[in-house]
Description:
Mean pLDDT: 88
Low-confidence stretches: 1-5
Strand content: under 5%
Shape: elongated
Helix content: over 70%
Amino acid sequence: MQINENLNSLLPEFPKLLAWYTQQQSKPPTIDNLPEFHLWVVAKSLRAPEAIRCRVWSEAIAEIVLSCTSILESVVETDRLSNDLGVSLCDIYSKLAESAIRIGEGPKAFKALQTLADQTELAAFRFLSAWTALNINQLATCISECEKVNDPFAPIHTLLGQAYLESGLAGDAIDSLKVAIQLSPSDPLPLVQLVKAYMVTGIQVEAGRTIDKCRKLLGPNIEIECLAAMSIMSGPSRTDDFCARTLTGLENFLILQPWDFEAFALAFELAAELNSKQWAEKYAKLVDLSEIEHPLDLAKQVASILKKTGDRQWHDISRLIIDKTLALTKSTLQ
């Protein structure tokens, strides 16, 4: 039996699960077979239109909890069935939570995921409930959910660090993120968050060291180079080597994506901060304005940066930008 999937169905993203769901259509599992019923419901939710998707799976969770004295064993079996079909149960619920948040039903999704976490005491479900709370801006609730996990689960400590950071508790964030890094040293996410925490607290040297660790893990990465540039401009505690690595990293990115307006503006501002006319000229030659909707805005931003330098010798660099802007304007008018 062929199912005509609606346009916003998520089920086709999981072909094996879709095939299994299709096979069950003639005789769907009942709640008497709880693991298969659970998997059926989440598959049905993935297939449902987004407007009703959260209601389908959140109501099903309430029904499953009421019908089962000990849900943990059932959930573990459901996850085993799901993994046999190429996706974990937590990954499915992550998709469903994202969908709920997108249409403003994050609070309902949070309550359902919190129920699963409470009933199973699984760190993965607690992470999902905390992550949902974070993404609906319930920072205190996110922190509370994370603190319920006693297992050495790195994603929880990373999420807790992010929630602390967004709550203005940068010191607590640093402590949590260091734990996450110890538990999962190859994960770049807590390192990136740690850079932000160090920058907020003004610990510029440690921010730079952590950025270099990120570079080793991630290789060329514009987010890291932008953080590096902001770190350099945040204070005087910077080394020549670190500055050179950052200038080069931004150059390499602009070679690949010369139309990136924000990367260029930041790179240019960094060159001005370091009083490096040579690097500013490199960036000015690299930038491609053809895909920028309002190139004059770029020219104004560059002019503002140049004005801060107070050095008239930089005006020939502004001329490069102006000439590119005028050439583009002329080609548009023709």
